[in-house]
Amino acid sequence: ASAGQALADNLNASERTHFVLVPLMAQGHIIPMADMACLLAEHGAQVSFVTTPVNASRMAGFIEHAVATGLAIQFVKLHFPAVEFGLPDGCENTDLLQSRDLFKNFMEACAALREPLTAYLHQQRPSPSCIISDMSHWWTADISREFGIPRLTFNGFCGFASLLRYIIVRGSLLEHVEDENELINFPGFPTPLQLTKARCPGSISVYGLEQIRKNICEEEIKSTGVVMNTFQELEALYIESFEQITGKKVWTVGPMCLCNKDINTMVARGNKASIDEAQCLRWLDSMKPGSVTFVSFGSLACTAPQQLVELGLGLEASKKPFVWVIKAGDKFPQVEEWLAQGFEEQVKNRGLIIRGWAPQVLILWHKAIGGFMTHCGWNSTIEGICAGVPMITWPHFAEQFVNERLVVDVLKTGVEVGVKAVTQWGHEQKEVTVTRDAVETAVSKLMDEGEAAEEMRMRAKEFGVKARKALEQGGTSYNNINLLIQEMGNQANASG
Ligand code: UDP
Q1: Which pTM was predicted?
Q2: Under the GO molecular function aspect, what terms does this record hold (predicted)?
Q3: What ipTM does the predicted assembly reach?
Q4: In terms of Cα–Cα distance, which of 441, 457, 478, 399 is closest to 238?
Q5: CB 36 near ligand 1, within 6 Å
Q6: Distance, CA 27 to ligand 1 centroid (Å)?
Q7: What's the rounded Cα separation, in Å, for the pair 419 and 433?
Q8: Which pLDDT value is given to residue 1?
């Protein structure tokens, strides 16, 4: 049993701080919240983790792990009213949405979980001490008021992007920008930064979402604080600025992915992996340390088939080993055909292609990996930071362009591949915007010898060490988790 388990056993169940975790049902949000559940439970708290049948079955490996290790996590499986809100039966995760226009229905179906969740929580002992909810679940604020407990928000962003989003939303900075090439300034942002509208968080317009956005913002202001999957040593300036501008306390408790300590939890993370882990590890073990580039664009990015082919040709031209995760096969048969027509055979000695869900942290943290080509989703980015490897940034949409700036300009642990166009979520990109030459150049910049690359590798390695320290006993995030549990427990006692 872990030290956390011993701590949990030492606490009388009725005295435990009881957190209710309500993730947005998207892989990039469920995964970090599952990690958060583990960390809180390991530090002695009790957790109720809200999910739905389809999402629970994807998390089966995680649930098994939680049960087997005796973590105090309860999985609250609520019926998801997909059909009632005009969605296909079983459409319980954003990656199952057929069109972006259905996002509104999806969010309304989520809001309908308020009553069943409230009823469930009324029966629980100890009663809830605190709700940690995805920021988009504004309706959880009603539940926190009903129970007289704090609501903390989580949205999966780092401090840098959270601050920028807040400045944009509060200042309505995007509202009157017509010119798509105009560079926008961000008053109050502590370091130089300019972006075009399409590269800003909040720039995606989704049909019918205005009222929901309004609710989210109103409840955000009333929330007690914010939980972030980051750590002080990485971006203290931006976390501090965020606290100052918002007047909210920030609990930095990351990198939360570090709670995945053994192979089984790494393989079961998010979804069942589509590759046999032993085969994957054998392949990685056969490669020289630090020689392989890991290429993966997360769970939602929709890269055009011809762009994928171009990327593959760039990897081939680089003559360097790579692991490439491709999710397009089921959507774009032409990519599969192209792979089968010779590409896979041609690169077989130095390229491993994974179709579908990859055990990302298992691969990233293997010693063979020397670089990470990423779409800059925050989870992937911080997982790369933990791996201590430099990155090639290839953002697609949302706050990924902002994370790219953090990695390239502030941390100086990555190079841009040079993305020109924004590939909006749910909108298929049509043309090739990143050439094979650009891919080859970026891989060389990252993986070759030479002073600049060496410096970048050193910096990345240092951040990797700091990341691990933050969650070790006495580290900043470790201490914050304990303080969070104490403070929320005290508040519950005071109000109860
Ligand atoms: N992930 C994974 N295997 C995959 C694709 C993604 O394990 O094949 C995980 C990845 O490690 C990360 C999450 O899914 O934890 C994706 O979150 P991120 O914020 O990087 O991107 P999003 O999918 O939200 O765009």
Answers
A1: 0.95
A2: UDP-glucosyltransferase activity
A3: 0.99
A4: 399
A5: no
A6: 7
A7: 7
A8: 44
